[in-house]
Write a structure and sequence with these properties.
Layout (H helix, E strand, L loop, with lengths): L2 E10 L2 E10 L10 E4 L21 H5 L26 E3 L2 E11 L37 E5 L17 E6 L2 E11 L6 E3 H6 L11 E10 L2 E4 L4 H18 L1
Parallel strand pairs: 3-11, 5-9, 6-8
Antiparallel strand pairs: 1-2, 4-5, 5-10, 7-8, 7-10
Length: 249
């Protein structure tokens, strides 16, 4: 099996950590929609991971059909890894932004059996955005996406993207709804949590897992899940936002 050396830099609260990895080869008329979904405490845990290959009622094919062309909104392009050239733009659509890249596995956050200093050489016990109790997110259980830190290339907050925002992640004809949970290097794009990779059928190992290409990230503007740690809330909001996205593009 072919392998490629990959470098990532993870930023948590302004502290950069260089990562070297080996990977096995919404809104009508453009108006912003604030989608905040709040669930009762009993629903916070969400459905069991792997219970369904498809979340919600919108297919991967229908979402991908709306992102075949790119209207670039970033001032430049991102690298997928430290060694690669900058080829990935952030693109704008009505009610969303999107990019197509690889996926490196982020294990940062709460210490768990799968995500800790022993399983991940680059592990950090914090995330840029925290739970409703003020604790780091749980990368093993919560599907979340990493956005590039603000730079001259792009400022995610200016585009209506915020912590807890809803993301549709698409890979291998599967859709996984996630939240914006962490920030990463300001020149590199393409990273999501252990739980996101696992739900999409990837190897979730932070050293050997992820995908080298073929991952589409659609981030819905001005959306926010409350509490951020509720995957059920992300699925509920994501399904509604995905339907509006298809209607408005």
């Amino acid at each position: 099996m072919l392998c490629a050396s990959v470098r990532k830099v993870s930023y948590w609260k302004g502290t950069p950590t260089v990562r070297t990895r080996t990977l096995a080869l919404a809104a009508a008329s453009g108006a912003a929609l604030l989608a905040t979904v709040t669930l009762s405490p009993a629903a916070h845990a969400g459905p069991a991971r792997g219970a369904n290959l498809k979340e919600g009622s919108v297919s991967a094919a229908d979402l991908l059909a709306k992102v075949t062309s790119c209207s670039q909104i970033s001032n430049g392009k991102y690298r997928t890894d430290e060694e690669t050239s900058a080829t990935v733009p952030v693109c704008g659509k009505n009610g969303a932004v999107f990019w197509k890249a690889d996926m490196d596995v982020d294990c940062d956050g709460e210490i768990t059996a799968a995500c800790n200093e022993d399983t991940d050489p680059w592990f950090q016990n914090g995330t840029a955005f925290e739970t409703s109790a003020g604790k780091p997110l749980n990368a093993e259980k919560l599907p979340y996406v990493v956005v590039p830190s603000t730079s001259s290339i792009w400022n995610y907050s200016d585009a209506g993207i915020k912590g807890g925002g809803v993301v549709a992640v698409i890979y291998d004809n599967k859709v996984e709804y996630a939240v914006v949970g962490d920030t990463g290097p300001n020149k590199i794009i393409g990273e999501a949590s252990y739980a996101t990779a696992k739900a999409l059928g990837m190897d979730p190992d932070p050293e050997t897992g992820g995908a080298e290409s073929g991952v589409t990230y659609i981030l819905f503007k001005n959306s926010k899940v409350s509490p951020i740690e509720s995957h059920s809330a992300a699925v509920t909001a994501g399904d509604a936002l995905a339907k509006q996205f298809i209607q408005n593009n």
